Amino acid sequence: MYLRPRNVFEKFIVEEKVSSLDERGSPIVRFEPTDKILFGVISITTPVEVEKYKKLRHEVSHFIVQRGGSQKANVGDLLVKEDKKYLVQAVENIAGMGQWRYYMVNERNDL
């Protein structure tokens, strides 16, 4: 992904995944809003990238690139932007220097 002038940094609210058990012992997964806000550029994956990440058992529909700062979201967290929700599948620290974070996400309508 190349950052161009028309790429705008967008605001995503981070919701953390919380797992618990109900009274019968069945697992319950819910997402709780946090005070963390991620600013990043979102792009759609190409068919080649979709196949590449399917082999790694990650359903990926978009990439979000965060510039600078610490890692805001972890694998399994939910990123919310207006009426769209993205489930974080993987996080990568590009070049290992902490200047850019690469979030591989899957757009979800059922959460």
What does this structure look like?
By secondary structure, the protein is mainly beta. The protein has one domain: Beta Barrel (Thrombin, subunit H), CATH 2.40.10.270. 8% of the residues lie in helices and 53% in strands. Strands 1-2-3-6-5-4 form a six-stranded antiparallel β-barrel. The chain is globular and about 50 Å long. It starts with 9 loop residues before the first strand and ends with a strand.
Number of spatially distinct domains: 1
Number of strands: 6
Structural class: mainly beta
Largest sheet: 6 strands, antiparallel, barrel
Beginning-to-end CA distance, first to last residue:
27 Å
- Overall mean pLDDT stands at 87
Topology:
Blueprint lengths: L9 E12 L5 E18 L2 H9 L6 E6 L10 E4 L2 E10 L6 E9 L3
Name the features.
111 residues; mainly beta; Thrombin, subunit H; 6-stranded antiparallel β-barrel; 1 helix
Summarize the entry for a quick read.
This protein has one helix and six strands, in the order E-E-H-E-E-E-E. The chain has one helix spanning 47-55; strands spanning 10-21, 27-44, 62-67, 78-81, 84-93, 100-108. Strand 4 and strand 5 (84-93) form a beta hairpin.
